[in-house]
Amino acid sequence: MVRQVFLKLQKIKLLRHAVSLSLGLMLIFGSHYVSSAALDINYQVYQQPDSEIHVVTIPVHSNHTITPEVAAELTSLEQFASKNNVIAAINGGYFDPQNQKTTSYIIQDTNLVADPRINERLIDNPDLKPYLGKILNRAEFRRYQCGAETRYDITLHSAVVPANCILQDALGAGPQLLPIDTSIAEGFTAYENGKLIRNAIGVDSPNARSAVAITSKGNIILAMVGQKNPNKSGMSLPGLTAFLKDLGAMKAMNLDGGSSSSLYYQGKTYYGRLDREGNKVQRPLKSVLVVQ
Fold it and tell me: What pTM was estimated for this model as a whole?
């Protein structure tokens, strides 16, 4: 009889411990389900007066990879994320919504799978002729295989691959935000006699934004800035740069923001842009970065 009572008490203790552990995980990760594969990935939401920033951080020593995906036809972020056990994803490079062709370079498994040079609406656009050299040499997020080591970098398309490394994957977008802003060098902005004559992505205006960054420790950051109201909310590029720097970013690259801004994490998709009525804009995409 005493032994039976003792065993019952032990069961109650174990149940209490399990409930406590479950509640603790909910406090750490929020109320949504977190798979065991994502336990080393951090997801946080930062609230600011005019924006809500969703941030996914992938530790440098995790077993996860960050790679680009590209679609022949424009595809929703959820469809990209539905493949191959994707934990997180963020919208990627630039594209022309009319012909659905890329305006950014994308490399997958050492192969060039998206080439802006074959986009006639880009190459034959007379308004862009003065900037084509810069547009075709924009920043890209790279994954190198250096022997047994995987490395990530953000650099211009023309940058030389490090010795003893293979350029495994790359996704172009831009401009590079850190360590310096290369908006002019990448053809996003241009000045003539001190006057701004080109501002392709409204660098100083608040908007929905997205970015990828690398910290001093080598962690990878995916950040998506959501608007809080349809009128002049979100972040400027300088504001996004300062925010990423506060998170410890040493290198950072802007992704195709505005209506494309979107981030997926553990089964839920967050959108950045609001229409005039305050509804979330869900724009199909050409490319994304995925975490597996």
Answer: 0.87
